[in-house]
Write a structure and sequence with these properties.
By secondary structure, this protein is of the alpha/beta class. Helices cover 31% and strands 25% of the residues. The longest helix is centred in the last third of the chain and has 19 residues, at 186-204.
Length: 259
């Protein structure tokens, strides 16, 4: 599915579901910016499907906008169904997320992987907006998420955080949560990222790698220490990327149903 948006749609609500917070806002699709204040509520624990859906309903209740909603979820979402649960509650596996959120909110919804949402936003409005070809966004957080876009079109549900590295998943060695847990210096963390990004480069050979996730705000502390044949740059939309990308995805789904 091409990730274009319906030119008649100017604003769409996006909601980004994370491990600690559920954030949402009305997005101006012409600018890639929030057109309302950002609403944030804590993610429930345990983050079971209906508990999360209830908080999403509360978030939407604080956003003064009607119409369809785009939601980003930290999981592989294929045909609306959740296929993985590496960093969310295991009850999500097999859940029809589109049906769940539609029933919980009474709205038309579209659901997309969270890294895919952020990648769409960064390529359209952020660090990748002037690049063609293959662009990869890598999100560093509790795990490692990834988004692959080719000439602006999303290749959904890539899981480059699960590439094998040091006899395990790459995210078990190079995620931001691992840096914090192991109390790594920025130099030591950059060394780990260097190894991981070299692996990504060998597999995909992109034109550009964008580093997203919360740690991207500290990019100046580790990116200058990484030397790769592929340019590596920090994300620009930061905490709004998932919200913007989710709204973009919802608009693209609307557009696809009309043609």
């Amino acid at each position: 599915m091409a990730m274009g948006t319906d030119p008649a749609v100017e604003t769409v609500v996006g909601v980004d579901i994370g491990g600690t917070g559920i954030k949402g806002g009305l997005v101006d699709l012409s600018l890639g910016k929030l057109a309302s204040r950002r609403v944030r509520l804590n993610t429930p624990h345990p983050a079971t499907p209906w508990a999360v859906a209830g908080v999403v309903r509360e978030v939407l209740g604080q956003i003064d906008a009607t119409g369809p909603v785009g939601l980003s979820l930290p999981a592989v979402v294929r045909g609306g169904t959740v296929e993985t649960a590496s960093n969310i509650d295991q009850e999500w596996i097999g859940v029809d997320a589109v049906d769940l959120f539609s029933r919980a909110t009474g709205r038309l919804v579209a659901v997309v992987n969270d890294a895919d949402a952020a990648g769409m936003a960064e390529v359209r409005f952020g660090a990748g907006r002037s690049e063609d070809g293959v662009i990869i966004l890598v999100t560093l957080g509790t795990g490692i998420g990834s988004a692959v876009l080719v000439d602006g079109k999303l290749v959904p549900n890539t899981e480059l955080g699960h590439l094998p590295l040091h006899h395990g998943d790459a995210e078990d060695w190079a995620a931001e949560s691992v840096r914090e847990h192991d109390e790594l210096s920025w130099k030591a963390y950059a060394h780990r990222l260097q190894t991981y990004l070299e692996l990504v480069q060998q597999v995909m050979w992109p034109q550009l790698i964008i580093i997203g996730g919360g740690v991207s705000a500290s990019a100046q502390k580790f990116l200058p220490k990484i030397e790769l044949r592929t340019p590596v740059v920090p994300a620009q939309l930061l905490n709004d990327a998932g919200i913007v990308g989710a709204a973009m995805f919802a608009a693209s789904v609307q557009f696809a149903t009309k043609t």
